[in-house]
Amino acid sequence: MMKQSLICLSFLFLFFHHSTAATLAAHSPAKAPSKAKTEAEAPVTPITKAEPPAAKAETPAKAPTSTPAVEPPSEVPLIQAPPHKALAGPTDVSKVLEKAGSFSVFIRLLKSTSVSIQIENQLNVSNTLTIFAPTNGAFSALKPGTLNSLSTEQKVQLVQYHILPTLVSLQNFQTLSNPVRTQASNTFDYPLNITVEGNYVNISTGIVNTTIAGTVYEDSQLAIYKVDKVLLPLGIFAPRPKPLAPAPTPLLKPKKETNSSSSSSSSSEEDSDSPVAAAVHASDALGLNKNGIANIGVAVVTVISMWVQF
C-alpha cells in the first residue's frame, strides 16, 4: 500500500510539474513578441512624431509675445481711475455721513448752508479736502439755542471752520504748521491749532479742546474724521466785554407852583417886592376873603404903605 501511495504521489507531482511548465511555456512566448514589438516600435515613434513637436515648439515661442498684450488692459482701470471717478461724480459727503450714522445734525447744517454743494464742486475739479465731523452728541453738549442764535453767515463760517482745504492723513498731521488754515474767513478770527502727541491728534480752537476720535472715510481726495466736540471759533463765540452802564442823568429841581390868585398881580420879580404885593400875600396868609371887609383892609394897608414911602 505504501508503495502504491508513493507511486501515485510521484505521478501527481510529475503531472503538476508538467502542467506548470506547459503553462509557463504557453505564456512566455506570448509576452516575448509584445516586448519585441515595443522595442521595435520605440525607435520608430520619435522618428514618425519628430515633426509634430517642432510644430508645437512654435506655439510656446509665440506665447511670450501674446502674454504682454493681454496684461495691459487689466492695468488700464488703475491708471485711468481718476477720470473714471470724475465721470461717475465726486464722493457724496452727506451719503457717507448718513451711512456712518450719528451725524444727522452736521448733515443738516451742510445742506442748509449749501456748504455740501461747495464741497461737491471742489471735489469735482480734483481738489482735496479734510473734514472734521462732529457727532450728534457733540451738538447736544452745546448750550440750548446756540445754533438758533447764529445768523446764516455765522452758520456758514462755523461749518467751513470744520473743513481744511487739503487732504491730511493721520500720519501727516504732525507736519502742519499752526495756526492751520481752514475754509473759514481767516486765521486771525478763526485760528485752529493741531498738535500730535503719540497716537492722539489734538485740536484746539481757543475755546474748545478735543481729539480725533476715528476715521469715518478716506480716499485719494477726501478724508473725514470724527470729533466728539463742535469746533467753536473765536470769531463767533469769543466772550465779548459787557457794555458800560450809562451815566445817571442829573435830576432837575421842580419849579415851585404859584398861586393862581397871585400870578396876575406879580408879573415880574420887581413887582413881587413891592408893598402892594406884600400886602396881598399877607392877606392870603391870613386867609381873608377877597370880598367884603378883606378888600377894605387890603386897601387901607396899601394906602398906608404908599404914604410911608413918600
What does this structure look like?
The chain is 53% helix and 11% strand. A six-stranded mixed β-sheet has the order 2-1-6-5-4-3. α13 (275-286) runs antiparallel to α14. The protein has helices spanning 2-41, 44-48, 51-79, 81-88, 93-100, 104-112, 115-124, 136-140, 152-160, 234-237, 260-263, 269-272, 275-286, 293-309; strands at residues 129-134, 163-164, 193-197, 200-204, 209-218, 222-227. The model is unreliable at 29-42, 44-50, 55-61, 66-87, 268-272 and 285-290 (pLDDT under 50). β4 (200-204) and β5 form a beta hairpin. It is rod-shaped and about 215 Å long. The chain has 310 residues and is of the alpha+beta class. It is built from 14 helices and six strands. Among the domains are: 86-237, FAS1 domain, CATH 2.30.180; 269-309, no CATH class. It is a lipid-anchor; GPI-anchor. One of its GO terms (cellular component) is plasma membrane. Belongs to the fasciclin-like AGP family. It holds the Pfam family Fasciclin. Residues 29-69 have a biased composition (Low complexity).
Classified by CATH, the class of the domain at 86-237 is Mainly Beta
Give me the strand/helix succession: HHHHHHHEHHEEEEEHHHHH
As a whole number of angstroms, the C-alpha radius of gyration is: 59 Å
Question: What overall form do the CA principal axes indicate?
Answer: rod-shaped
Quaternary structure of the protein:
single chain
CATH topology of the domain at 86-237: FAS1 domain
Provide the structure class. Answer: alpha+beta
Low-confidence stretches: 29-42, 44-50, 55-61, 66-87, 268-272, 285-290
What is the average of the pLDDT values? 73
Main sheet properties: 6 strands, mixed
Widest beta sheet: strand line-up:
2-1-6-5-4-3
CATH architecture of the domain at 86-237: Roll
Query: Total number of β-strand segments?
Result: 6
Report the portion of residues in β strands: 5-15%
* CATH evolutionary superfamily of the domain at 86-237: FAS1 domain
Percentage of residues in helical conformation: 40-55%
Instruction: Count helical runs.
Output: 14
Distance between the termini: 220 Å
